[in-house]
Amino acid sequence: MKRIHLCPFVLVPAMATAQTLCDSLLVESFTYDPFGNGLHIRLDNQSTQFLSYPYFDVLDDQGNTIVQGSFGFFGILPGTDQLHVLEIGGAPPPSPFTGSLVLHYTGPDGDATCTIPQQAVSLCPADSCFPFQVYALSQNAPVNAQLVWSLRDAGNSTLAGGGFTFTAGGSPEAVAQACLPPGEYSLHVEWPFPTGETFQVGVSPSVFEAVGPDTLLAQGGPVTLPFTLFGPCIAGTQAVPEAATPAHLIAVDARTVRITSTDGRAIGEVMIVDPAGRRVGGIRTTDAQATIELGAGAGGVHLLRITDAQDRTITQRIVIL
Rounded distance, CA 35 to CA 25, Å? Predict the structure, then answer.
């Protein structure tokens, strides 16, 4: 008689369980909307599953829904991160925040949720200044133009500035990097020699991801765009820990880096490192302002490190074009 060997086996689900999927979701950041009355949640989908129609609700520590989200994307691809912007109709939640974020999505088995606890999370910027982008966008075919921009405080003092250069047939968009602490500011832009073109100018956490305040610059301007940066975090509105390191205003225009000490003290030593870890620029100064020209080289995310006379150090990521 022919023998038949029966081997034990275990059925393994083709898809990860909901708990495993939830464990693969990382909230990289959870903050106030830098320029509006809302919340920003950056979610990293470290799973292998596509999450369809995702949106967040925010619950307080009693389980009450205090912010209800809505669909903003068709889905989150596996291995990618995504910024979710939640609009708030009333007062924003206090910081630090304790409660939970509830992610709603549609998976292969239908609608599902993941609850991600948040314990005493600061909704304000972690560093002494918040990096954002200043931009100009041509509304028609690009023409030869040189725009001049500056960021000013509530007293109209210039904190940082630079220029945008457009060429006929070139890119319709120009972007510069800036870094400021929470406060009331304005963007001032002018076009000394206008040629009839119109530009959209504004500020944004990231031009390609989130919307910020903007206005139109036509026939040379100038235009002034007031904006509030992290309003709930301005001193006197909510408790913000005093920075243990000195605050600096950092502006990047193409390959020029400008640094200003907010307290008027000497900046000290500045070092800029490229993505390969090579030092590509630096300066040692006793002045409260410094300008570094990087010259030719690779673009991308660089690290800027400032060390003052008291050996206090800050490190900031900047984008070099």
Answer: 26
pTM: 0.65
Strand ranges, E, within 181-245: 183-190, 198-204, 214-218, 223-229
Q: Which CATH number fits domain 130-232: 1.10.260, 1.10.10, 2.60.60, 2.30.29?
A: 2.60.60
Q: How many CB atoms lie within 10 A of CB 309?
A: 11
**Is the Cα dihedral 241, 242, 244, 245 positive or negative?**
positive
Q: Are 15 and 51 in contact (CB under 8 A)?
A: no
pLDDT in tens, 24-63: 889 988 999 999 888 999 999 888 888 888 889 999 988 8
Length of the chain: 321
Question: Amino acid identity of 213?
Answer: P
Q: What is the pLDDT of residues 146-184, one digit of tens each?
A: 888 888 888 888 888 888 888 888 888 888 888 888 899
